[in-house]
Specification:
heterodimer, A: 385 residues, alpha/beta, Rossmann fold, 15 helices, 8 strands, 50% helix, B: 296 residues, two-stranded antiparallel sheet, 9 strands
């Protein structure tokens, strides 16, 4: 049986390994793990595994990472038939080996971000500058111009305008709530208070269930020319953020990437720029497969209070049947499915691609998101009946 | 294997719950560490059953809080029985009791409606098992409220005072992952994922729960279910469906599966029109052999 002090140290080290692999392990969880190990048979590898997993893992998605860490941790001593003691010795050098590697990966990623960085949005210093409101005539012109036709030096201004419009919309939406007089259950507490002076309960007060905020899930095509539109849409929706309960964002080209956490961070602006990193130049867009991946792994983010926004030009190199089937699954779960296609802004465009044709009957709303007016118009569709 | 875990394993089995080491270990830890256990898994894999069996094992009561959209503190914790209070005031109108006496009466425990959470906290004797079922159906606001209750197991009712659990209840939370739960809640809980049972386990479950099914049929049913779960369906059938089906087959006095029988009883296995269509198509093309042939 292990000496308690070593056991504690080994568990702490294991907790650090898990943390390095991205599991949110708190110190109190590690202390619970120590207590858990005291409650199981330390000579039984399977039981130690189950105990640690019960305490230190908090969602199914973490299991592959957890299993890897556990394997690495046990590799040296499981064969000798030893328990957890002695692991302390093995874990220390292992971590030292790992650390520079992690740094290298991080550095490489940073560098890549630098390369991917576009100059249109300006540096962080620009954030502190007072927002310039362009004159009315300038603005009218800007409203209807396609994002892709703006010269690079004007994009910065357009981005600011996008946020400004969104913020004004957000204020308007939050003011629109009003109390309901009919329906709901009787609120006896308030009824009694209202009738205190009357001696009898005459007037009944009612309360209705508080309205929950709508949630958004964004699936953004970041292949080729779509990237610019994605960025404006994201900027617009994130500025509207406090109107929504939660905004989850995924990007796709040939595979799906969840970028919500990236965008939620303090360096939101640089994260926006980094979106293009997930771009995959090799093939076309596989919308159907990407949505399938979303449905399989992230379907639980969608409920009847969730609006799913899909931004894509519909140039799908995958099978249209797959797209149709996955759109159906999505539609069943979500409150609304909105497809945004910037090409729709072009009067001569008709949604004739096979993918588009397969998906269109399953879409609740089909709109462009190619200029500021269309973004503003979009806001009125982001509501659940 | 630790003796306590072995004992839990045996007790669960004797309570007609077919279990595995993962479930037994998690239950053992939830009891020793006195921490809430969050159980996730697909619908119908026996998550709720864990709490029931636990209460049976411990010989204590099971208090169940079924969550749903819009569930609030009044329905989960406590509420004053307003109609009863109003009636009481009416009846007392002519008596000589003073105002404060009346007040003391109507805010006494007799007028308090104890909802599951308060029941669990104010229980006397052995700590009960508190089952918070389908927490993912409740709103996020309720989750935050629940966290508060779970952290110190005490409730303050302004008119009565603070009620603190003498012995905190054992807490089991279940989730079907309809909604993502907050990290704060996950941090506070131990975690157990119950997957669909493997072939061996399902055979054991079927033979244990539906005695009318012979060994061959039990194996065929389990193999069939195993295959069905690999097909992409809108609603993947759980153990509950397996048992329903086995029960139906048993009452039809079936001793093995054939195509006709399966087609007739498919409604027990999948409950979605598209899924039924899909399975029928698979049956027509691949035959029954596609489903029950032993997989290597």
């Amino acid at each position: 049986m292990a000496v308690p002090r070593d056991l504690t140290r080994a568990t702490l080290a294991f907790g650090a390994t898990l943390r390095a692999s991205g599991l949110p392990v708190t110190t109190s969880a590690v202390m619970d793990a120590v207590r858990a190990l005291e409650a199981v048979d330390l000579m039984d590898r399977a039981e130690v595994y189950l105990a640690l997993r019960t305490v230190l893992m908090s969602r199914l998605e973490e299991q592959p990472a957890f299993d890897r860490c556990f394997e690495a941790f046990w590799r040296f001593h499981a064969e000798d038939g030893q328990g957890l003691d002695g692991l302390v010795a093995t874990i220390q050098p292992q971590r030292r080996e790992d650390e520079p590697e992690v740094d290298a990966v991080e550095a490489a990623r940073e560098k890549q971000a630098q390369i991917a960085l576009d100059d249109w949005e300006g540096g962080d210093a620009a954030d502190d500058e007072p927002v310039e409101v362009p004159g009315l005539s300038d603005r009218e012109a800007l409203m209807d111009q396609d994002f892709s036709t703006f010269p690079a030096e004007q994009l910065d201004e357009v981005a600011r305008l996008t946020v400004q419009i969104a913020k004004r919309l957000a204020r308007r939406v939050s003011r629109r709530r009003k109390p309901t007089r009919r329906g709901g259950v009787i609120d006896l507490r308030r009824s009694m208070r209202a009738n205190l002076m009357k001696g009898e309960i005459i007037e009944l007060r009612r309360r209705s269930r508080r309205r929950r905020k709508v949630r958004l899930v964004l699936l953004c095509d970041v292949s080729g020319s779509m990237d610019l539109y994605s960025r404006f849409l994201l900027q617009f929706l994130y500025a509207l953020q406090n109107v929504f309960g939660r905004v989850e964002t995924f990007t796709f080209a040939t595979r799906l990437t969840r970028v919500s956490d990236l965008l939620r961070g303090p360096s939101y602006k640089s994260a926006l720029r980094r979106l293009t990193e997930v771009r995959d130049f090799s093939g076309g867009t596989r919308i159907g497969e990407s949505i399938r991946e979303f449905n399989q792994n992230w379907g639980r983010l969608v409920d009847r209070r969730t609006i799913v926004l899909l931004l894509s030009d519909g140039w799908d190199t995958g099978e249209p049947e797959v797209l149709a089937q996955e759109m159906l699954t999505l539609k069943r779960r979500a409150a609304r499915v909105i497809w945004l296609n910037p090409l729709l802004g072009n009067p001569s465009y008709e949604p004739l691609t096979r993918g588009m044709a397969a998906a269109l009957p399953l879409v609740d709303h089909f709109a462009a998101a190619h200029n500021l007016s269309s973004l503003r118009e979009l806001a009125s569709h982001l509501r659940v009946r | 294997m630790r003796a306590e875990i072995k004992k839990i394993h045996e007790m669960m089995e004797s309570a007609d719950y077919v279990t595995d080491p993962a479930i037994a270990t998690s239950v053992h830890l939830a009891m020793t560490l006195k921490k809430p256990l969050l159980i996730e898994g697909h619908a119908g894999v026996g998550k709720t059953e864990v709490a029931k069996v636990m209460a049976k094992m411990l010989g204590t009561s099971l208090i169940r809080l079924q969550c749903y959209e819009g569930l609030d503190a009044a329905q989960a914790l406590y509420e004053w029985n307003y109609p009863k209070q109003l009636l009481h005031i009416k009846l007392e109108e002519s008596t000589a009791h003073t105002m404060s006496e009346k007040e003391a009466t109507i805010f006494s425990p007799a007028f308090l409606i104890r909802r599951p959470l308060l029941q669990a906290i104010s229980a006397t004797g052995a700590p009960p098992v508190l089952l918070i079922d389908e927490i993912d159906r409740a709103d996020e606001e309720f989750e935050a409220f629940l966290l508060e209750v779970l952290s110190d197991f005490q409730v303050t009712i302004p008119e009565v005072g603070t009620i603190k659990a003498t012995q905190p209840p054992y807490v089991i939370l279940t989730s079907n992952r309809v909604r993502e739960l907050s990290d704060a809640l996950r941090r506070r809980c131990l975690y157990l994922w119950i997957d669909f049972p493997g072939f061996e386990k399902e055979v054991r479950i079927v033979t244990r729960k539906v005695p009318g099914v012979n060994e061959r049929l039990a194996k065929e049913i389990s193999r069939f279910m195993e295959t069905v779960r690999t097909i992409r369906l809108a609603k993947v059938p759980g153990i509950a469906e397996t048992l329903d089906w086995a029960q139906a087959l048993s009452s039809l006095h079936a001793d093995h599966l054939d195509e006709e029988l399966v087609t007739e009883t498919l409604g027990c296995v999948v409950k979605d029109a598209d899924d039924v269509k899909r399975l029928k198509r698979e049956l027509a093309t691949g035959g029954i052999g596609r489903f029950v042939a032993a997989q290597s």
